Amino acid sequence: MIQGRVLVLICVLILAVSASVSETIRQIPLMEVGSLWVKAVETLASRLLTAVTTVPDMTDPLTYAKLAVLAGVLYGVWAVFFRPLNRVRKLGDIGYIPEGAYSTKETASMVQKRRKVGKIPPPYPNGWFGIMESFLLKKGEAKTVSMLGQNLAVFRDETGTAHVLDAYCPHMGANLAVGGRVLDGCIECPFHAWRFRGVDGKCVSIPYTEKIPDVARVKSWPVCERSGWIFMWHHAEGADPTWEIPRLEEVDSGAWVYRGRTEHHINAHIEEIPENGADVVHLGHVHGPIMTAGVNLHNMWDKWWSFAKHHWTANWQQCPEPDGHVGALKLTHNISVFGITIPMMNLQVSARQIGPALVYLEFKSFFGSGVFIQTVTPLEPLLQKVVHNIYVTSWMPTCIAKFYMVGEAIQVERDVMIWNNKQYEARPMFVKSKEDSLIAKHRRWYSQFYPAKEKNESIFQKDTLEF
Ligand code: FES
Ligand SMILES: [Fe+2]
């Protein structure tokens, strides 16, 4: 039904534009524009019919060139209209303004070296963290992952269950996931074939002895697979999970379908990213200029784009117990062009920050409903991998979902430029206002995820960025 509305709208727009252009430039009376369109469609249809019913002359080299162009065009149409989005921006791709003769990547390296880190909260909070999207780990596959100061072996057994173990084998230290085979719910070390059970990390087989010492085991981490993600529970003192990741009914039932992902690598402390949700003032400023003005904070104020603007309202609050680990954000968005609001661009957003590193951002729009799932994963103390997935009502055209996702990515990339270049301000200079007190409230809420006393976890951050 919505797709029908979109098609009618597009046709009306094409007719309106062509009619006014024809009349003003080519002096064709409006009445004749319709018959010109009919003739043009007829000619195109008859040419297409001839092309598909005529056997091509395969001795003519031009035929191959035409077929190649046709294949390219068809691929392009498929890619734009049907292929899910995959937008990846690594550190140094964006988020820096090149200094002098230096490239963006060189500037990234310099900015990181000279930034004062100062006093920062613990870099690895307690909670559930996204490891990878489920589709990235097939049955029988093992992958090595570094995050939260840990080296991990992540694998999916033959029944489809995902497991996470410490990566290094206690025998002689081989990395289990680098060449290790997945067999009978276990991972087999690639070096001397000791086997470790996925559920608890216990060694269950050593090929050259019957006696398996009880201490022969690796640490296994609590895992939860939900909403298209494999999550791992991290707790600095080793405590068991104290809350569950909620399900998204529409995603589980297939009512909302996957339409793409974005991935951004950001040089900042993890808390900076969720804190954005309670920072209502930055919405109007950083995210006010229209998305076509781009992601460079320096250029986006170009007056050529000032005719259109994003408008936001937002409110954030902590949920009552037993959901004290959840923050709720209500957001509205619209776009005005020459001061006139475009109703098709309105969004009503209801977001939940679930613990330190996961957000479900559900939205309602003119074209249907959906959700952005955001995960933040600390790869190093000041290096975050932020991934967004979008799921939308199945009848929403893929290109519309991709448009939402690109729009969202552009807004995130403006934040990335702020995050990459700022320092964590442990004692911010807040002024007496509702706006700043909301950020203070968010800081108090987020502090529940920090370990009571910081554990001496292995830190393997590089001091510098090298490209
Ligand atoms: S190092 Fe793993 S079995 Fe020897
Ligand atoms: Fe933002």
From TrEMBL:
Pathway: Hormone biosynthesis; Steroid hormone biosynthesis; dafachronic acid biosynthesis. Its EC number is 1.14.19.21. This is cholesterol 7-desaturase. InterPro entries: Cholesterol_7-desaturase, KshA-like_C, Rieske_2Fe-2S, Rieske_2Fe-2S_sf. PROSITE patterns: RIESKE (PS51296). It catalyses: cholesterol + NADH + O2 + H(+) = 7-dehydrocholesterol + NAD(+) + 2 H2O; cholesterol + NADPH + O2 + H(+) = 7-dehydrocholesterol + NADP(+) + 2 H2O. Its cofactor is Fe cation. SUPFAM superfamilies: Bet v1-like, ISP domain. It is found in: Membrane. Belongs to the cholesterol 7-desaturase family. It comes from Aplysia californica (California sea hare). The keyword Ribonucleoprotein does not apply. Keywords: 2Fe-2S, Iron, Iron-sulfur, Membrane, Metal-binding, Oxidoreductase, Signal, Transmembrane, Transmembrane helix. The chain crosses the membrane at residues 64-82. Residues 1-19 form the signal peptide. It comes from the Eukaryota. Pfam families: KshA_C, Rieske. Residues 128-232 form the Rieske domain.
